[in-house]
Design brief:
five-stranded parallel beta sheet; about 450 residues; single chain; alpha/beta
Length: about 450
């Protein structure tokens, strides 16, 4: 019996999940995965753990080893870059990056999970030695070597988002002098509202990170090797520069073949289909449907890619999928030295970009009843809620504390996904035990505060 040929492009989260689902759901498939890189498949989100010596081995920081799938008959071809889709013939053109040879491979179904590439800032000196990117195995090992090099004193990190914060923290813990530069005026300003970033900004400074905010990078300077970063706010000595200034879709190779938007994101319909027959796209190179925003937005998260891949494979062989993709909330978490936060859905910044009118509320309290001393695991806790001012439907939120309350972010995600209102969350039935929380749970109290109820 002839097997149906499924080609998956990209070995990161979306590609990994797609093959897991294909193997679990269907028989009689001929599955081929192409990965342009040599190493399959490094988890860049685990890079900070590697840099801080908190992993078993760098080669273990991966989604899967190829053998997991090749033992089940899947063809996993690393160092093979897909360069073109030939929709009329239902083939992809693939180049062996080592030999340069090109070959065409047939497909019946094609799943694109091409991901993103980090921004290499277009400034003079970006090709100097010791100017690095914070993504992938090769860059991870280069950065690790510099953190362990006693001759390296000054590290400058460009970008104060998640990746930049991770790079800065790992560098401080390695004993380096760290400068963190961003064009916006708050660290993590795209992810959290000012009430929380003000707390984290002071904490970063207390830990020794020099913050240079609202700055424009003019150049990287040096003679062969970088020695300084030039900005409109001065020069900063730099033995190493780590660029963490955002990402862009890895879709240049699709231009003119697959419909892209003005920023290079792959256009998909409500069933995650592209304009080409039998060609689907998932992950960071697409815009994901945001439940709270009720529109498509860039949501570059592993969780998004995996949920989209699960949906695509479930409906892959339906002429018209039974239901459209439900959409996502978009949730994430991060530790910033002693603090831990989790965020979900929209914040003021992302709501403004999506032209969604929101109201916000910021709540501060202690984790446990007041009779528990602070030094007995009763720290300050903070909750931000974002909601529709007319309907009170919860559209976003975040939690922050030196105690790890990040699991509360999952509660917020469920509330947002199910379009709960402040009134629902204010009276939601959560447990109470003074060793864990207060008589009303933290999110109960935050919602009551947003409603203007009397302080408990």
């Amino acid at each position: 019996m002839t097997k149906t040929k499924v080609v998956v492009v990209g070995a990161s989260h979306g590609g990994h999940q797609a093959i897991l689902e294909l193997l679990n759901r269907y028989d009689n498939l001929d599955i081929t995965m192409f990965e342009a890189g040599d190493f399959v498949s490094f988890m860049s989100c685990g890079m900070e753990l590697y840099l801080e010596n908190s992993v078993t081995n760098v080669s273990d920081v991966r989604n899967f080893e190829p053998k997991l799938f090749t033992d089940q008959g899947v063809h996993v071809l690393n160092n093979h870059e897909v360069t073109k889709i030939n929709a009329d013939k239902k083939t992809v053109t693939v180049q062996d990056v080592k030999s340069g040879d090109k070959s065409d491979y047939d497909y019946d179904k094609l799943i694109l999970s091409s991901g993103v590439v980090p921004n290499n800032l277009p400034v003079p000196g970006n090709n100097l030695e010791n100017v690095y990117l914070m993504r992938g195995l090769d860059w991870a090992t280069k950065i690790k070597a510099k953190l362990e090099d006693s001759a390296v004193k000054n590290i400058t990190v460009i970008g104060a988002g998640y990746i930049g914060i991770e790079a800065a923290e790992a560098s401080v813990k390695a004993g380096k002098n760290v400068t963190l530069i961003d064009m916006i005026d708050r660290p993590l300003g795209t992810y959290l509202d000012a009430d929380m970033t003000d707390i984290l900004q002071k904490h970063l400074e207390d830990k020794g990170v020099k913050l240079v905010l609202g700055a424009k990078i003019d150049a990287y300077e040096g003679n062969g090797t970088v020695s300084a970063v030039k900005t409109d706010k001065g020069f900063f000595d730099s033995d190493v520069v780590i660029q963490a200034a955002g990402v862009k879709p890895n879709t240049k190779w699709l231009d003119g073949i697959v419909e892209l938007d003005s920023r290079g994101f792959i256009n998909t319909d409500e069933y995650l289909r592209t304009n080409l027959p039998d060609v689907y796209a998932v992950g960071d190179a697409t815009l994901a449907y945001s439940i709270p925003a009720q529109q498509k937005m860039p949501i570059a998260l592993a969780t998004v890619a995996r949920r989209e891949a699960r949906y695509v494979t479930k409906h892959l062989f339906e002429k018209k999928p039974a239901v459209p993709f439900n959409g996502l909330v978009g949730s994430s978490a991060l530790s910033v030295f002693d603090y831990h936060f989790a965020s979900s859905g929209l914040n003021s910044t992302t709501a403004a970009k999506a032209n969604v009118k929101v109201a916000t509320s910021f709540y501060q309290d202690t984790l446990r009843p007041s009779y528990v001393p602070q030094d007995k695991n009763n720290p300050a806790v903070y909750v931000s809620l974002v909601f529709d001012p007319q309907t009170h439907i919860i559209l976003g939120g975040a939690v922050l504390s030196t105690y790890d309350i990040s699991a509360q972010g999952n509660v917020l995600a469920l509330a947002i996904q199910n379009q709960m209102k402040l009134e629902d969350l204010a009276e939601a039935d959560f447990f109470f035990q003074p060793g864990f929380d207060r008589q009303w749970s933290l999110l109960n109290l935050a919602a009551q505060h947003a409603l203007g109820d009397a302080k408990f």
